[in-house]
């Protein structure tokens, strides 16, 4: 554990923001059969039984779509999902972003993309942190995966959450260790300074990073003092470099200037961009309200993570119970991220 990391030790019992308890009127009494306008009389014959409906056609054979939590219950979500089509692989999704937003990326640099594939998972209610943990778990847990329902149940049983919310990075680390059997390292003092190289090396190695931040209308990081606190999982990084190392990289055939680590080939680690080099590092992230990857400027994520200080007034007034650690959002989320590694992995 480095000096900028904190052991995941037990914290004081979380405080709760109580919800009001409105009086609920009893349900109305059902009318007696004698009060109905027509009396129910026994029938002396039986109606013919209709034939059973025909069996549905067998499902089409093909690749299974990505699992989207809540899809079965939401007709609107299902309709939107069907319009979008199949979930693209991580590298292809990022290439789509690069083509759409060419102006965001500096033309004086060459770019190296380190990308791990993650499935999509759409949250139901305030479960963004638990959904982000589930997505991260696909890089950490056995191939069969860990059901989201188990992660939610353990979080409730341990007192980490009431509605699915997670306002403590330390609790998230303990939950990850218990449910995924992985290593969890909590970094304090933000994504900048000495933590920056640790985070980038962690992502280059293919390990996931959990990040609390304020979510803007387009899901990107913003600054709302924690009022829009949200969770994302980062599964890769796009680095802008002056020169690509000779060993272990291949240029993309469609996008000149974009390089990928060559499969089954040892890669020479790239020289990380200086922290003062603006627009040279982008995090590859997913969160529970979209099934597409997003590329976020590293400094934008860093700044959003550093200003999570207040509990949302709208949540405080919505009548629900939320688990908030001692010291509030500032103590639980501000300037903190979680590095996750497989149990057998070393730093």
UniProtKB/TrEMBL annotation:
Signal peptide: none annotated. The keyword Protease applies. Keywords: Aminopeptidase, Hydrolase, Protease. It comes from the Eukaryota. InterPro entries: ACTMAP. One of its GO terms (biological process) is protein processing. This is Actin maturation protease. It comes from Chinchilla lanigera (Long-tailed chinchilla). The lineage of its organism: Eukaryota, Metazoa, Chordata, Craniata, Vertebrata. The gene is ACTMAP.
